[in-house]
Amino acid sequence: MKDFEPELDKRLKHLLSRMLEGVQMVKRGLYLRLLYRLELKYETEKAKFLAAAIINTLFSDSPSTKKAEAFLESNRNLIKQEISDLQADNQICNVVTQAARVKGIISHYLGTPGKESLINPLERLKELGILVPGGKAPEPGSFLSMATKFQEDSMGKEVQRRENKSGEQKPKWAILTQKAFEYGRKGKYWKSIKLARKALKLNSKDSEAWRLVGNAYEFLGDEAEESSDRERATEFHRKATEAWEKAKEINPNIIIPGYHE
Domain ranges in the chain? Predict the structure, then answer.
């Protein structure tokens, strides 16, 4: 049994790393959605600080900077009010609840210090009226799919919002990339890869198309793993990493869910 322990430990760490990235995907998607709503009421800088403060509050996280901490202290009532406005959004409540459950599991396995002195994240969500009661922690595959879709949908809405503002007509390669995004969101990964590669023939510097190719191969690899086809899983994950590396070369700041170097 001991011969298998290092391999099991390695696989567990990889799984926890991917689950943690799933939580981060939820946070990034939520940030984009909040920013869109808040910019309708506040100037951009305040909207950004407020969106970050809401997310920190929902996930029982500490502010990352002194400026963010000062904003939190001086705007607690406003933050609570904006969170109360989210109670009617069933999708956000469900996604945040699932992400908080996963975050708690990760903290348990990693033995994150100091958690005993902090309020249980689920209890915090219950107090804020966001918690969806009942149920259990989601399976890794279903959670990562949900988190990816939530972030992708959020990013798609943000892109659409910017395009509506600019009124510019998209080139053909951008249209193909958008279609690849839509197919990937629906779980039609081979179709997504085909369209993204067509876009890359027209514009090899399209980092978003490379990202979508990587995403599709990553999910195909996950499906192969679930069916115990390790050879194909390894091949698909390798292709995902290669595509993501291309995207990173073109745009170092691109957000890539599940990226593993």
Answer: 2-128, 169-250
Distance CA 16, CA 217 (A): 20
For residue 38, the 8-state DSSP code is H
Can you tell me the distance from the alpha carbon of 121 to that of 220, in angstroms, rounded to the nearest whole number?
33
Domain 169-250, CATH 1.25.40.10 — does that match? yes
For 14, the token pair is 């990889």
Query: What torsion do the CA atoms of 91, 65, 255, 82 make, to the nearest 10 degrees?
Result: 20
* Dihedral sign from CA coordinates of 203, 148, 92, 118: negative
Residues 6+ apart with CB under 8 A from 239: 213, 214, 217
CB-based contacts of 174-178 (< 8 A; 24+ apart in sequence): 174/199, 174/206, 176/202, 176/209, 177/206, 177/208, 177/209, 177/212
- Residues 248, 211 contacting (CB under 8 angstroms): no
Report the predicted TM-score, pTM, of the whole model to 2 decimal places.
0.61
Q: pLDDT digit of tens for each residue in the chain (261 aa)?
A: 444 444 546 677 777 778 888 888 899 889 988 988 888 888 888 998 999 999 999 998 888 788 889 999 999 999 999 999 999 999 999 999 999 988 888 777 766 544 443 347 788 899 999 999 877 777 888 888 888 888 878 876 655 555 555 455 678 888 898 889 888 878 889 999 999 999 999 999 998 899 899 989 988 988 888 888 889 989 998 999 999 999 889 887 676 655 444
